[in-house]
Amino acid sequence: MRLTEKQISSLPPRALHLTRAYLDTQSLVNFAKVLPHFHHHISESRLSAVFVPHWQHSFISLVAWRQHVVWFVAACCAALAANLFQFLDDKSVDIKTDLKAISKYIQPFFLVVAMPLICQLRDRVFPGTGGTGIPQVIAALRIPHGPKRRHQVLSWEILIGKIILLTMGLFAGMTIGREGPSVQVAACFLYLSDSWGKFQMSLVDRGLILAGAAAGITGAFNTPIAGVIFAVEEIGRSFEKDCQSTIVRTAVVAAVISWQFYGNYNFYNGEVRARTDIASELFAIVPIGIVLGLLGGERVYREIYLLTLRDSLTYPLNSFWLSA
């Protein structure tokens, strides 16, 4: 796509940072000619995010290399955070076992003392750290990008607070899953890296958050494919064509780092062996599968019926208001 000087100068200055054009070298020269007319509207660092250069130019572009380095560092930090949570979870189990061997009252005492302290820190020092982490990441995708908007769920304060409070909760003996916090912390690392990377708006809007979610799941379970699928289907709820390469590359980086720490780690710490000594146990599998399948189908049918009923009740009202 080649833009003339007249075409570029006609662009609204406030919409320049939302423009995504594939420009060749001559177009960049034309853009530089009219830059003094509206350079006061956008910063020079953000200007680099206006353009998505061809892959040939990215190898000689300092801006592109800076973005690659920032993304790689953020992906490594996201994977390290997920592996840190796994390490802390394992250590907390060992410490709780040692304390129980000394006295069975030590661990309950720590739990009673730590829970009110964690709640106070959550509300007074680290607001926004409540919740498991995954619903907060989903909510971040629905919040428009901008100052003091997504920072309610993705910020440095939440990142640090999540690590501190989760560590306290694990060693206090609380039943806390590390997967949700891994997703939110990893999403924070990737999303906040835009302060240095100045990525394209397609990545800032959704791509970086989804990539962080994929890295969190990958680092927590050492499952890159599951991390990508989870980010696309559960977090994004749609296929992100423009961001898919970033999501996959981030999951691969997280998988490599997890493999360096834990090797060929699998969630069950070994093989899952099961055998049936009694033949009658085999016959129990079939009726159990039938019953569970019927229960699942009944729930789906009930939800579809309720949605259809809601639409049938609200359609006359919507038609009335539209006609009025």
Report what the structure shows.
By secondary structure, the protein is mainly α. Helices cover 70% and strands 0% of the residues. The chain contains 14 helices and no strands. The protein has helices at residues 5-9, 25-34, 44-47, 55-58, 62-102, 106-125, 134-142, 156-172, 179-192, 194-197, 201-221, 224-236, 244-262, 279-323. The model is unreliable at 1-5 and 13-56 (pLDDT under 50).
List keywords for this structure.
324 residues, mainly alpha, Clc chloride channel, 2 domains, 14 helices, 70% helix, 0% strand, globular, disordered N terminus
What topology does this entry show?
Layout: H1 5-9, H2 25-34, H3 44-47, H4 55-58, H5 62-102, H6 106-125, H7 134-142, H8 156-172, H9 179-192, H10 194-197, H11 201-221, H12 224-236, H13 244-262, H14 279-323
What does the largest sheet look like?
Answer: none
Number of domain modules: 2
CATH class of the largest domain: Mainly Alpha
Could you say which overall geometry the principal axes of the C-alpha atoms support? globular
Termini gap:
46 Å
| Strands, total number | 0
Q: Please report the number of helical segments.
A: 14
- CATH superfamily caption of the largest domain: Clc chloride channel
Beta-strand fraction estimate: under 5%
For this structure, the CATH topology of the largest domain is: Clc chloride channel
Counting helices, strands and paired strands, the structural category is: mainly alpha
CATH architecture of the largest domain: Orthogonal Bundle
Average residue-wise pLDDT: 76
What letter string, H or E per element, gives the SSE order? HHHHHHHHHHHHHH
Catalogue the unreliable spans: 1-5, 13-56
Any idea what the radius of gyration is?
A: 25 Å
Q: Tell me the helix content.
A: 55-70%
